[in-house]
Design a protein that fits this description.
Layout (H helix, E strand, L loop, with lengths): L16 H37 L2 E8 L22 E3 L6 E3 L3 H4 L5 E7 L6 H10 L12 H9 L10 E4 L20 E4 L15 H22 L2 H18 L11 H7 L3 H14 L4 E7 L7 H26 L5 E6 L3 E2 L11 E2 L3 E6 L7 E3 L1 E2 L6 E3 L4 H11 L7 E4 L2 E4 L14
Parallel strand pairs: 1-7, 1-8, 4-12, 5-6, 5-7
Antiparallel strand pairs: 2-3, 4-11, 8-11, 9-10, 13-14, 15-16
């Protein structure tokens, strides 16, 4: 089903730092008393401990403007409620839309925030606010959450990109979403969940030849850098080394390596594969993964489209939450389900809902976020927030605190302090445990 959108916007055309201290100290002690075997065991234990402590963020971007009324904050029986029922969840007293029956059974892991008010109904500006925690301005450009997470959470010597987006279209390459943090922290886009482009050796070049080519390149680079080193040459060297390491990690991005049973559980449709790939990346300690599900900009036939799209999301999302919880990864993984805004309580003459940013919902789970909770409340017809109002800036602070990053800190960029989050806001302490 292809919608004919009333909104004429471009969006519709794109459907371990502690390791060194702990690990090296333990290695020195064990080497002195037990030799190499004990040393190797200690290093393995330290690596396992690091993996368990590595914080991660998984963001579901419900692109276009997901309706809160057809998902997290239903209003059945009201003039604005629409045709769908509210159903009970695994948490007594909390109800969500009947379009999310499998997610409802995972409510004890989730935290609903039903009082979001960002007061921005433009797609581009709304998305920018939700991903950066700031309003868009000609005076400054800010890095998205993925870039901030990559810089804050990724070990400097990591072989994997720290900021990955799984998008339902072609794509590939790097994003332009790290602002002053630099291209190292920009996103890598996996088009339709496929491995990064150009990570397979061309025919005629074997592994031995590739090793010798890199050895020659490094020799030339080092000789040049010894005489003409600059920020630009460092950037080029880092790019080549990152690409070489990424090629060695290509199998990490191959969802076909997962068991047939898991592929069946998640579903062999695109979004199911994307969620299974996200799980695979999190298991390999990628600190930030964004999964795009699109397109929710339902100015026309809102109920038909949500009836089609939301169930596509429901099964794989619920399966992933259950898997993360069962494996223990949810303890160290912050899950966010967001959009750029919600949909109007009013139903227009095309049986659609328009842009609405004054009273809508997002979902969080994992890390030190309250479990089985619903924070905030909207009026009986969903037109305004009546309790627990929050905005984009508070949410951004909350995301960082949830993964152990002090959002009141700053990055030092070219000698200038750049706050991680809006200094005028603070976290939503009531949802942090």
């Amino acid at each position: 089903m292809r919608p004919n959108y009333a909104c004429d916007s471009v969006e519709h055309f794109i459907a371990r730092r502690s390791f060194l201290t702990t690990g090296l100290g333990m290695t020195a002690v064990l080497t002195g008393i037990g030799g190499l075997t004990q040393c190797a065991a200690a290093e393995t234990l330290a690596a396992q401990r690091l993996s368990r402590q590595q914080k991660r963020i998984l963001l579901f971007n419900m692109h276009g403007g997901l309706s809160q009324l057809e998902t997290w904050d239903p209003k059945p029986g009201t003039e604005t409620g629409g045709p769908f029922r509210a159903i009970p969840t695994s948490v007594p007293g909390i109800h969500i839309s009947e379009l999310l029956p499998k997610t409802a059974m995972q409510m004890h892991h989730l935290c609903l925030l039903r009082g979001v008010n960002t007061s921005e109904d433009d797609h581009g500006k709304g998305a920018y606010m939700m991903l950066t925690g700031r309003r868009q301005s000609a005076a400054a450009n800010y890095p998205e959450l993925g870039a901030v997470a990559a810089k804050s959470l990724v070990p400097e010597n990591s072989a994997m990109p720290g900021h990955i987006r799984i998008v339902p279209w072609g794509g590939g390459g790097r994003g332009n979403d790290a602002a002053y943090l630099g291209p190292k922290y920009s996103s890598v886009a996996l088009g339709n969940g496929k491995p990064p482009q150009y990570t397979v050796l061309p025919d005629g070049i074997d592994d031995d030849s590739e090793t010798r080519r890199h050895a020659f390149r490094r020799s030339v680079d080092q000789n040049f850098a010894s005489q003409h080193r600059s920020t630009m040459t460092d950037a080029f060297l880092n790019s080549y080394e990152a690409a070489a390491q990424l090629m060695q990690q290509r199998e990490t991005f191959d969802v076909e390596k997962e068991s047939p049973a898991d592929q069946d559980r998640y579903g062999k449709h695109d979004f199911g594969r994307h969620c299974l790939l996200a799980r695979r990346l999190l298991q390999h300690d990628v600190p930030f993964v964004q999964v795009m599900h699109s397109n929710y900009d339902t100015h026309n036939e809102n109920f038909d489209f949500h009836h089609e799209l939301v169930p596509q999301f429901d099964g794989p999302f619920a399966t992933l939450i259950a898997d993360l919880a069962d494996s223990g990864l949810l303890e160290d993984t912050l899950v966010i389900v967001m959009s750029e805004f919600g949909r109007t309580p009013n139903i227009n003459l095309y049986m659609g809902r328009d842009h609405w940013s004054k009273a809508w919902s997002i979902v969080m789970a994992g890390c030190n976020i309250a479990r089985g909770a619903a924070f905030g409340e909207t009026s009986a017809n969903g037109t305004e927030v009546t309790d627990g109002q929050v905005d984009h800036a508070q949410l951004f602070h909350t995301y960082l605190h949830a993964v152990g990053v002090d959002s009141s800190n700053s990055f030092l960029v070219d000698g200038r302090e750049m706050p991680l989050a809006d200094p005028a806001a603070e976290p939503i302490w009531k949802v942090l445990t």
